[in-house]
Amino acid sequence: MEDIILSYYSVNPGAWISIGIVFLSVFISWALNFSAPKVRVFGTLLASFGCFVIATWFFIFVMNSGLLENPKPNQTPLDSAKPTLLWIQSITAFLTGVFLLLIANYQRKSNEILDLSAKNEKYRYGRVSRLLHWTIAILFISLIPMGIFSSMIPEETSYRNAYYVVHKTIGVTVFLLVIVRLIWNKISKRPALDNTLTPTEKKLAHRAHNILYFMLLVIPITGFMMTSYHGYGTFFFFWELPPLWEQSNVYQIWGGFHKYLLPYIVYIILGAHVLGALKHQFIDKHDSAFKRMVS
Ligand code: HEM
Ligand code: HEM
Prior knowledge:
Blueprint: E1 7-8, H1 13-32, H2 37-65, H3 82-107, H4 127-150, H5 160-187, H6 199-229, E2 234-236, E3 239-241, H7 251-283, H8 287-290
Antiparallel strand pairs: 1-3, 2-3
């Protein structure tokens, strides 16, 4: 297809910012499961720093941009919830940053060397699965406020394009990493769920994991379809893939999934996933459970 030309841009701030975000996410995920305990503490501190960066971005940049009060005109009544969503997400990022500082302080006392193989073991995840889980998790979580804010920026704003380049690049990266993760799950069998879970908890955890895998595939696909049918290109670092089809109003249907239905399902399932993991660790006091994915 002649239309599918990958064009190269030598100056593209969005591509450089994307490289920075992907590099930092991989680095944090690698450090979180490093064998030496001091490096793991450093990984937790970096993860906390990442949360503070998101909170600072909102409280300093977004709040002073004037776009919370004067965003791009709403397309549906649901759009009026965006400032509130950004507030909730930024306060959560700030509190998570504080929480991770406390965890780093606790981790300082450990001198346990983490002896872990690349492949999954019977009762815990190996290095590759952990690296993929945390890199995807960090990128996925950062895409949500980034996507919401991007969609509020009026057309004529100078930095609008950079936000779209970063959002689309990271979105495509998540999609590719999920494919690698699914292939890896075939090569190295996933460990069975933790034995300390009740049968109901097992069923819920299993369902939540499957729905999350589904979301990780379907959200970037709907984003790509919405973009392409709307007549825009998809960015991947320095490259741009032009729209694959004639512009058509079908983009509104894909947009309905990408912008409204799927994010709200994700809030519920991801909330249950994270709160379930925290309950297991701090309320049920099953210390081994969290350590299956991070030590
Ligand atoms: C940042 C907060 C997160 C925490 C604390 C967390 C924690 C965990 C833990 C402890 C497990 C292992 C469960 C087990 O014992 O079997 C796990 C698995 C999983 N998580 Fe997360 N997670 C987080 C974010 C995410 C995100 C953002 C996604 C995807 C959108 C995600 C998707 C998954 C999936 C699909 C599994 C199942 C892994 C497999 O068996 O292949 N998680 N998570
Ligand atoms: C896991 C990957 C992704 C996640 C979690 C994600 C999430 C989001 C979210 C939450 C929004 C805000 C929706 C709103 O409130 O209006 C958004 C907007 C957007 N997303 Fe994504 N997205 C992902 C991947 C992609 C990809 C791969 C593309 C395109 C190739 C894309 C294109 C867009 C566009 C163009 C918007 C803004 C739409 C507008 O201006 O109204 N997204 N995304």
